[in-house]
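User: Please run a holo structure prediction.
Assistant: Happy to. Please share the sequence and the ligand.
User: Here you go; the ligand is 2-acetamido-2-deoxy-beta-D-glucopyranose.
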Amino acid sequence: LAHSYACLKMRSILLFVVILPFIHCSCPEGYELVRDGECRGFASKIASTYADVYDRTAEKCAEVQGQPIIIHSEEQQQYWLKKREAYTSAYMVLGMRCNTTTKHAEWMDGSPVDYIPKDGGVDDMTYCYDDCSWYLWHDGHYHSLCSQIDVSADAFCTVQLQQPVASGDGCDGFGDDADDRMCYQVGTIAENWQDAQKTCKFFGGDLASVHNDKENSFIRRMAVSRGQMNGVFLGGIRFGDESDFGWVDSTTWNYANFKLGYPETGKGSCLSLDTSNTAGEWVNSECGSSHAAACVRNPKNHACPGGPWKEGQYITSPGFPFDASFPCDFQFTVAFGKRVEVEVIFLEANSCCDQLVIYDSFNGGNIVANVTGEIQNKVYKTRSSNTMKVSWMPDGGVNVRGMMITYHAV
Ligand SMILES: *[C@@H]1O[C@H](CO)[C@@H](O)[C@H](O)[C@H]1NC(C)=O
Ligand SMILES: *[C@@H]1O[C@H](CO)[C@@H](O)[C@H](O)[C@H]1NC(C)=O
């Protein structure tokens, strides 16, 4: 992207590498994220002439990869009229131009003038001149002014957010082994088996079960590409002392690739895959030892994960950053006598429709905050409670990424 806006104070987030590229600013500074991933805002004053103001406005908006105001609905009309009042803006430039061939007014993206303001309508709609520009007038009608008379106008623009494109196979940020319609991912940090399983759960999956050589090699290669040369945890766990293993995702135990001499009886009960050579052999490790998680999940599984959540853990809305349409409640508890402080690291929600509501305590406590739009690195605290509920309540979540939060005791 050509533009870079001062925004996120990025810290080192130890998280799945797949998510990091998607945590960045979206709307230009000072713009409001309103609906369907459309940012709207004031660009600048323009000193020009009636004839040229449209081109100058289009240039200004192009600087942020946006375009001047285009109106196709009552919602947009009312939004801009309100904005116009707030700016006491006499000359609010519209993205309307005269089609030199048909001599009809049209929007700059070529779309027809299909919304007609109730009062006054649109000037020169069916016969227009080349040296005119249109303005949103105080009474709502689209007023055209022409010729070389000087004008000081207000350029407002809209910018459409570009969403990360999901992979199409439903794996969305996970890798597809192109074999059995399952999706895999390997974590970036070493953690014990239980935490590794929680990491996978967080992404709607489980620690990986392995059912053939192909899957085994796929996971090993993925681990290597993530820099995990010291092995990864698989979803295998042993019952009792013998070589009686099962998969945490409840799939059938129908394949094994143990290193010679393993599993060692009486030793560790958790299964890890040796990534240091191409054989990708398994050993039984202590469950408290540290390896990165190798996770598996079904395509399109964006279930709301139940927690519990650890302090400092990075928590995202289900499907983040590809799909923000799944609602989810998150409950946090800290030590008795302490308060909960949640940090909204990243929120991208349509202010028309999607809400993030933060409650003092779990059950119907006071609302600490009810926020939407774009937020980065902002903290909210409970008043006295050591519990907090955070509800992600999208109404559509159209063309936005959703949220990432974390919490601490204070
Ligand atoms: C004018 O309108 C015609 C017919 O709708 C269209 O094909 C053409 O692209 C328009 N011209 C410009 C400059 O947009
Ligand atoms: C949060 O704010 C929105 C918009 O103002 C409102 O519609 C919604 O009811 C509020 N939610 C709660 C739980 O108060």
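The chain is about 10% helix and 30% strand.
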